[in-house]
Amino acid sequence: MEYTKSIRVFSLLGQRGTYGSVLYELARENDRILALTADLTRTSGLERFAEVYPQRLYNVGIAEENAVGFAAGLADSGYIPFLSTFSNFVALRANEFVRHFMAYMNCNIKLVGFGSGFSMELFGTTHYGLEDVAVIRVMPNITIFSPADGLEVAKILDFASQNEGPMYIRLSGKMNSPIVHRTDFSFIPGKAFQLADGPDLVIYATGSMVNTANQIGKNLNKKGIYASVYDFHTIKPIDEETILANKSKPLIVTIEEHSKVGGLGSAVAEILSAHEHHGRMIRFGAGDQYAKAGRYEYMLEVHGLTPEQITNEIEIQMRGT
Q1: Helical spans, DSSP H, in the chain
Q2: pTM (2 d.p.)
Q3: What CATH number is given to the structural domain containing 284?
Q4: Rg (CA), the chain
Q5: Residues 262, 134 contacting (CB under 8 angstroms)
C-alpha cells in the first residue's frame, strides 16, 4: 500500500496511533485480519476498527496470557490475529504463552507491544518496556521488528499481514514523534537501512533511538567526526552482513531504548565476538537498574540517552583513539 502521503499524520499519531490507523486500512483489503486487545481498544488506536468491524475485534480483558492462547486458536483457524497490548505485559506476564504458541508451535500471531521503553512516563517502572526484546529474542522462530517512525510501522504491518510466521512488533516513542523517513524507501526485513555514511565510526540504532542517532551524527559532523548511521528495524534476524562489513571501524556504537542487556547491543556484540579485528564497542541503553520513574525526557537523561550525552561520550572515545 502507498503510505507516503500520510507521513505527517503518522508523526502526529505516534507509532501507537499509526498502528490502529494502518491496521484498519489493511483490514479493508484482507478479511482474514483480526484485532485482539487486552482491554486497550482506545489505547491501541483501534476505535475506528472496532466501529467498522465490530465482529473482527476481540477484547479479552486484562488477561494477556489468555489473549495469546486465543490468538493461537484464531491463527490455526486461518485468520491473521494482530494482538496489541503494553510490551512489558505481553513479554513478561504472558511469556510462557508466547514461548509455547509463537516460538514452539510457530503460530501465525502478530504480537504488537506498545509503550516500549520509557513512553509510559509516570505510570512507572511497572509499565516500562525495557526487557521485552531480551526475553523474546531468545525464543526461536519469532521475528522481532522495532520501527523507527510511522512510515516504518506501516511497512512492517503491511509485511506482517502478507507473510506467515510469528512476529513481535515493538512500538516506542510518544505522539508527535519525529519523522525519520521523509520519502518512500525499500523495506527489507532483516536488512538494516543506512541513513548516513562516514569513515570514523558506525552507529546502530533501533526504534525511537534512530532519530536520536541521526541527531548525533549531525552533531559529530560539526566536530569533524563522521559516522555511518544505520536503522536496525529488524532485531531478529539481525543483519550480520552489515555488522561484519563495518567491524573494522574504530568505534562501534549501539543505541536502544531498552536494557543494555539482551537487546540490540547484545545481538551486535554476539556477532562481533565470533570474529577478530573489530573496533571497540559502546552500548547505550537503559542501565541495569530500576531508576526512579519520571517524564520521558527525564528518563532518557537519567540513562544517558539524550543526543548531547551520547555525542559527548562518543567524542571523548574518538579523541582518545
Answers
A1: 7-29, 47-52, 64-76, 87-88, 95-97, 132-137, 150-162, 209-222, 240-245, 264-272, 296-302, 307-319
A2: 0.95
A3: 3.40.50.920
A4: 19
A5: yes
Is the separation of the CB atoms in 90 and 135 below 8 Å? no
Question: How do the pLDDT tens digits run along the chain, 321 residues long?
Answer: 778 778 999 999 999 999 999 999 999 999 999 999 998 888 888 999 999 999 999 999 999 999 999 999 999 999 999 999 999 999 999 999 999 999 999 999 999 999 999 999 999 899 999 999 999 999 999 999 999 999 999 999 999 999 999 999 999 998 889 999 999 999 999 999 999 999 999 999 999 999 999 999 999 999 999 999 999 999 999 999 999 999 999 999 999 999 999 999 999 999 999 998 888 999 999 999 888 899 999 999 999 999 999 999 999 998 775
Q: Are residues 10 and 137 in the same domain?
A: yes
| Residue 143, SS3 per DSSP | strand
CA distance 162 to 26: 10
Q: Which domain range does residue 134 map to?
A: 4-170
Q: Domain check: are 97 and 63 in the same one? A: yes
* Residue 264 domain-assigned (yes or no): yes
What is the Cα–Cα distance from 225 to 31, expressed in whole angstroms? 51
Do residues 157 and 245 both lie within one domain? Answer: no
Residue with cell 542501565: 287
Q: Per the structure block, which three cell numbers stand in for 2?
A: 502507498
Q: 164 and 16 in one domain?
A: yes
Among 115, 139, 170, residue at a domain's last position: 170
- 153 and 17 inside one domain: yes
Would you say 83 and 60 are in contact if contact means Cβ atoms under 8 Å apart?
no
CATH number where 88 lies: 3.40.50.970
Q: What total of structural domains would you count in the chain?
A: 2
